[in-house]
Amino acid sequence: MRTILFLSDSVNRRMLQIYAESGLYLPNLERLRQHSVVFENHWTASAPCMPARRDIMTGRLNFLERGWGPIEPFDDTLPQLLRDQGVSSHMITDHYHYLEIGGENYCQMFDQWELVRGQEWDPCLFPSGNYEPEHVGKWHPQYARNRELFYRNEENYPSAITIDKAARWLRENRDRDNFLLWVEPFDPHEPFEVPQKYLDRVGDDYTGTLYLWPNYAQTDGDEERLRHIRKRYLALLLMTDEHLGGVLDVMDAYHMWDDTAFLYTTDHGYMLGEHNFMAKNYMPAYNEVFHIPLLVHLPGDAHAGERVSALTQNIDLLPTIMELHGLERPKEAHPIHGESLIPLIEKTGKGRECALYGYFGKAINITDGRYTYLRAARGDNTPLYMYTAVPIDNKIYFNRAHVKDIGSIETGRFLPWTDYPIYRIPAQMIQNRPGYELDYNRFLPWDKEDYLFDLQEDYTQARNLVEERPEVVERLKKAMAGEIRRQQAPLDHLERLDLKDL
User: Rounded to a whole number, what is the largest CA-CA distance in the chain?
Assistant: First the structure.
């Protein structure tokens, strides 16, 4: 048995024609769809980048315990579980966050791994001066240097190299068995750097000021620029799809559809002006970020072309891949929240009744497949603690520069599902870098609001029904409290969101 996991970054499912008629036609994703089951109701649990990856690798929802961070020493990861039972793993990626503070121990779980350098502000080259062209949105001198070296032609783009390397690896290892190939291109993550030919294919005719990297902020009202940045995003989807075709060509050439599973998904989505927001992290947990694509090809094209409407999450990938390989998790491994997708595909299971999702320290959100309910913290958002054995966040260590009161940090065995001793750090003591959109001490106006949306009647989430459908709110409040307890998450959240009496 062989499995390929293709994990693109920041895919907005509404931009894909396989999910929305108005979406972009991607010829190679359509090729894959013809061999696959399409999951209609698939959700990220924890966001953004590293929390989503830890969800996938551990089968556990982790945003209720900590924010952005590394693999913990008590985690049982997918590559480890596979290796212990004779299945090797190989990662190829240009997701440079794996080399930053807060991204430790992910790559190292794999038997072999390759990291392609040069994305975004990956510090792989010495910046050359402070050249900064006239532009709209974000810019960075490190990116300017990377752009100068890597973005001269398409073959040098890091994600193109990543996917092309995966195609070569698959061709060279086509006679091997018992492996997981983890292919992880950073694109279509911003900045939306893309060759002109793809902009031409999506009909971009923008001639204004350079704009390829949106601010994490509300839109500025300039419709021409908004159309352009959306076109850039679509063009980057096209380029990623073009190179995906090389992997599928290998599948075709060696009849690997017969004996190889293929999963396509993303870590989270990305907002492109919906609700007047750009990017992710700081706005309410809208569908564009948390409702994500998933295609699953089973060997022999079993159930190809079918669609599954049951509620699923990224934490389901670990048990699914284990089942595909005929493996079971050892009894001593930590409990997981994920459920194999195979019974849903084979129509022998019905799936979960609800799913929690969100960002650490912000609202907790729940969907039952029909409704989404976004519940804000009450009062001053306390108690809120980060539970970790590795006191790190995105680009920072929890040292005296980033924790107001080191004496407030406790140690103990605070999580009921592991005996591992951990730190409990009051979130209000954490001082993140200036402008960090997931600052646990900063609250924007919408952070104090509850939202209820009917996805059947209002998928775009334009109408808040909190006042109109109180019976649905009460039902989902009880379901949220029940899920927090069932998943053995810190019970602090029941008090933080005023759910402890439910």
Answer: 61
What is the overall mean pLDDT for the chain? 96
Two structure tokens written together for 422: 């951990």
- For residue 416, give both structure tokens: 């009921």
Residue 471, Cβ neighbours under 10 Å: how many?
A: 7
Which tens digits make up the pLDDT trace of 294-321?
A: 999 999 999 999 999 999 999 999 999 9
Q: How confident is the model at residue 129 (pLDDT cuts 50, 70, 90)?
A: low
The two tokens of residue 180 are 């997981």
pLDDT digits (tens, 9 = 90+) for 208-260: 999 999 999 999 999 999 999 999 999 999 999 999 999 999 999 999 999 99
- In tens, the pLDDT along 138-197 reads 999 999 999 988 888 999 999 999 999 999 999 999 999 999 999 999 999 999 999 999
Dihedral sign for Cα atoms in the order 459, 267, 241, 1: negative
SS3 212: strand
**Distance in angstroms (rounded) separating the CA atoms of residues 82 and 92:** 17
Residue type, 22: S
Say which residues have a Cβ less than 8 Å from residue 129's Cβ, sequence separation at least 6. Answer: 141
Rg (CA), the chain: 22
- First-to-last alpha carbon distance for the chain, in angstroms, is 45
Question: By three-state DSSP, how is residue 473 classified?
Answer: helix
- Residue 373 and residue 61 in contact, taking contact as beta carbons nearer than 8 Å: no
Strands 271-272 and 278-279: antiparallel
Tally of CA atoms within 13 A in the half-sphere of 10 that contains its CB: 22
**Angle of CA points 283, 288, 293, to nearest 5°:** 145
438: tokens are 């997931």
- Strands (E) in 94-154, as ranges, are 112-115, 135-137
One-letter amino acid identity for 234?
A: L
CB 67 within 8 A of CB 438: yes
| CB of 103 closer than 8 Å to CB of 50 | yes
Beta-carbon count within 10 A of 259 CB: 12
DSSP for residue 470: H
> H-type helices in 254-374, by residue range?
287-290, 317-324, 342-345
The Cβ of residue 424 has, within 10 Å, a number of other Cβ atoms equal to 17
pTM value? 0.97
